[in-house]
Amino acid sequence: MTKYHTLLLSITVSSLLYSQATRVHAEENNVESFNLTDLPSLELDELLATDVQVTSAMKRLQNVSETAASIYVLTHDEIISSGVTSVAQALKLVPGMQVRQIDSNQWAISTRSSAGRYSSKLLVMIDGQSIYNPGFAGVYWEALNTPLYDIERIEVIRGQGGLLWGSNATNGVVNIITKHTADTQGVLTQVEAGNMTDFRTSFRIGGEFANYNSYRIYADVDSTDSSDKGTAGQTPNDSGEKKNIGARLDLSLSDDLSLLAQTEYSEIKMGQVSRLFDLDTYEKIYVDEEASRKHLQVMGRLEHKLSSVSNQMIQASVSSQKGNQSYYKEHFIISDLDYQMNTLISNVQFDWGGNYRYMDISITDTDYITSIDNINSYQQYGGFVQAQFNLIPEKLKLIIGDRSERNSFTGWEHQPMARLLWKPKPDHTFWGAVSRGVRIPSLIEYNGIAMASGISVGKIYDTGVDSINNLRIKAQIVGSSDIEAETSISKELGYRHNGEDWGFDVSLFHTKSKDVTVVEESYDEDTFTEIATLIYLGEYDAASALINSTTFDYKFVSSAELITYGGELAVKWQPIKRLKTELGVSYTSFEYNLPSGTRAAFGFDTELWQVMAKADYALTPTHSLFAVYHIESGDAYETDDYSVLDLTWNWQISPAVSFSLTGNNLLYGSHLEYADTSQTYTVPTYIEPSYIARFTMEF
After folding, report:
1. What ranges do the domains of the chain cover?
2. pTM of the model
3. Measured between alpha carbons, how far is 142 from 331 in angstroms, rounded to an integer?
4. In the CATH scheme, what is the code of domain 34-698?
């Protein structure tokens, strides 16, 4: 037992003694002791989270029942009750999300697509500020350390969100919405420890000043252990350390004007086993190393109520992302400026706005990844307009709009959309949508050369000499400035029902994508003719030297089509007051149409099934159990199907003190969740059953 486990145990025992003394004192003074029923109760709609208010789908506040999109809301209460320790793990609670853990630090996450370490079709934001990485247009999930206790909700849109949020939101949008500082007053401290976590400690201080102005400051630090079992015969090296500090300020400048300002800095050091290549023989080698990341986010948003029917918002943000590992070194500074207005004109709701993004790019060439041209900046600007028509008041709505943006890589791109929502009765909603989405090539696809596993000569040309056939040719993945933006047409249908004690939500989708990025295999055939001639003449040394100087290229091209279809189902049921349950089922199919001589760059023809069951049961007024059971099926990750149980016991010791104990990946045992190494240098590990204890105190 480490000193941190001992500290956690001693704090827990102390809190138990404090709780017992409090109850005795209450009994002596004829005061009723605390229990969970003393807390304000939520309405059933809020408990079921089927008609809460959301902002991500329409870029303004509205009820889920009024939203013509496949949206799921993960509430604060569920995040805390489930015992999850990160946003990445919390997304496992969302039906239809593909969430695979690669090792103790790294994740592969997407929706309506097979996920990869560098998935690029899912837009992730914190309070509307994008946190994507321009290098691969995805997210480093290990660098996302916003405290879970300060998250109000996570809104997940499955499907295209490009009209409102821009490019690379073709498969979905995740918007992490944090609490207003008025709701995070006082002091909160939290300590966590477990068999995979040495310790995690965090605190938050919140206060008020002047007229209805408030703030919070928070920080945390954690240390995690390496996994027990690796792959490829390697000993895992995925321990990690994280430090995080942030602040938020909410100012009420007047009755109609408010300002939000927030910042967050994260520093991550994580061990990993990297699958690299010998620079002389091009054979695979495995290297233990420490990767580091430093992320800084700064954002300010000014909201102005112009009238009872009009609002405007301007948001400015700057983020810095710096990464350092043996095969890739990067530093991006990203500046964003967004303006938006919402207004009502003759019963037509108009939403419109403009955006500008500038990125300062600094990539240091390594032996494994280099740049083709010296691209040191990137610009993107444009705007959107959206109109909602009430064709039949309270029953039938039509939403149409378009976003047009220009980017430095592919020029002008357009993303039109039309949605129809029909409510024959207040608790029944039918909706449909047709939209066009755009995925802009990442910097690596456009301007990078990445070393890949060497190709043996014999796989290309049989020389008749084993010693020559077994030699490896340098292989590399080559970007291209001729690559096009991937465009997709998505058709969606949905139905949701919010009953007295249950909710039902189903979505179906079909997406056809063109100009899909694939890799085209190419090599110089004349070189192999010359190699054959040298071998025929017996000049083996000269043949070997020529082999060593040639390359086998996988060049990024935009020439394939991809059809994706499937659906998601979520059924929430509260049979009794103390029990909330949910069943989620999702299915996704991928079908590529590949030109001759190419292969898919990300994924392959496959099907994915997911079944999830959740239950939250109040055992007593102060004790509850939260359980979630997953069944994951499909060969997209080159793993076996698996089913796991996560179980959390929550104990509200007093109004200010709580304790939880969580077991993850129970029942099934050690398993791989991600084994596809074609997209990454990272070597995955087996995911083991684990437990973590959490102690939280507020005062």
Report:
1. 34-698
2. 0.89
3. 17
4. 2.40.170.20
